[in-house]
Design a protein that fits this description.
binds NADPH dihydro-nicotinamide-adenine-dinucleotide phosphate; nine-stranded mixed β-sheet; G6P_DH_NAD-bd; NADP; single chain; 16 helices; binds 6-O-phosphono-beta-D-glucopyranose; EC 1.1.1.49; alpha/beta; globular
Amino acid sequence: NSFADSSIVDGSVTNFEVSPDHFSSSEQIKTTVSVTVVGASGDLAKKKIFPALFALYYENFLPEHFTIFGYARSKMSDEELRNMISKTLTCRIDKRENCGDKMEKFLQRCFYQSGQYYSEENFKELDKKLKEREAGKVPNRLFYLSIPPNIFVDVVRCATYGASSPTGWTRVIVEKPFGRDSESSRELTASLKQYLTEDQIFRIDHYLGKELVENLSVLRFSNLVFEPLWSRQYIRNVQLIFSEDFGTEGRGGYFDSYGIIRDIMQNHLLQILALFAMETPVSLDAEDIRNEKVKVLKSMRPLEIEDVVVGQYKGHSKGGKSYPSYTDDPKVPNNSLTPTFAAAALFIDNARWDGVPFLMKAGKALHSNGAEIRVQFRHVPGNLYRRNFGTYLDKNTNELVIRVQPNEAIYLKINNKVPGLGMRLDRSNLNLLYSAKYSREIPDAYERLLLDAIEGERRLFIRSDELDAAWALFTPVLKELEEKHVFPELYPFGSRGPVGAHYLAAKYNVRWG
Ligand code: NDP
Ligand code: BG6
């Protein structure tokens, strides 16, 4: 890891040497890290956070002295928490050698405290238990807010109440949603900052922890063949596509007050766009990277309603199987206009990207599952092959695809000659398929992000000015859609989504890849 060094983090000196055993080698410091998962009984904690913590432990990335606490209102003993964690272990480690033994050891470090989210008293009980485990060592504390956003501030108030330590650090990972528009997001930030400094707030966007999103900057800035082409001069359009082949399944209550634009576009897809389009940062330092992301976000035009298409999935039956409508979810009102699909065209008004459409498409209950970036290049200038292969070449310009998931890959579509005596052109892929090239499994995004938060690495977390700039792009259109009660185009569950998305792309002379 190139970020390995000795750094001052939150006032305390921490030794970073990111190798699996680095924490045990820095024994002389005698620090301890405790991770408290607030909302430990919830879906995200079970599905992602505990499995990621276990994977880090299995790979020896957690410090020698670490403790994990679950906190929630549900009544549970330590044993019941351990039971829950071991039963819901869905991590990539679960079929590995010695998984059972390591799991036993890991579980012995896990504890539970039941309490209310607004109760200082209950958090004091947690504090007492934490102190028992921290005795004699420099205490570092990480709180992961895996709870609904309306209780973020209460929890931060209680968790930080009287708990500050002069030597160790306290950090808080905040899950999305960070507000639902510019105003509520600023309010949330201001409220959190009554108790925390910006440096202590780790706003998570798990897409930033995905391997191929991490790789974007390596691809761009360490390969001579890409960076010179990375501009309006050579790129016709960029597409950021997210699709899921399942509906809101159990999250309808949350989803209905947010919708797909807030759930996916304003954060996951926009973060990818920022990394894709930013200028070269001065260094790999977190602040230098985040400065460039903010700059590019601020160069973007706020999205206009004419450049958005919204859709909502409807139920149907096929082959004896029936698929539900979005509004069949008991937590969604029958007359909900919340989009489960959206397509949008965004523009960056700077010298590099002037006039290049950045098209986003995100939807639930579609025909496929995946996330990818498609970069469509311009036509080759000149007439050499176009004289004979005009239409063919018009259709088949170069395209670079970065498939974030599943089956991570980077491939470049090129034109080549079909072997033989004739002259026919063919389209082929120069393909880097991760599973073929690397035998090592790709870690889950939450593993990377939890490790970074423990190490104080902020590069993959969202700074407050970045968040402001992101909301500024989407807030006006979200308000307009809601005020005008724009009716979403209905599309059948499992289809390719509303046709309106194709008209939007055609308006900019683009075909979705
Ligand atoms: P849950 O709805 O499962 O809530 C987590 C825990 O919070 C629950 O187990 C419950 O614990 C407590 N809780 C739930 N509702 C309330 C309420 N109204 N008032 C007080 N406490 C409540 O959420 P998730 O685990 O799905 O998500 C946690 C956070 O992560 C949310 O902010 C979500 O938006 C975000 N997120 C979730 C993803 C996912 O895939 N699930 C993906 C990305 C982000 P108890 O009753 O025991 O106190
Ligand atoms: C979450 C959204 O942030 O990302 C969910 O709230 C979505 O609606 C999820 O399903 C997708 O994440 P991933 O990692 O499964 O692609």
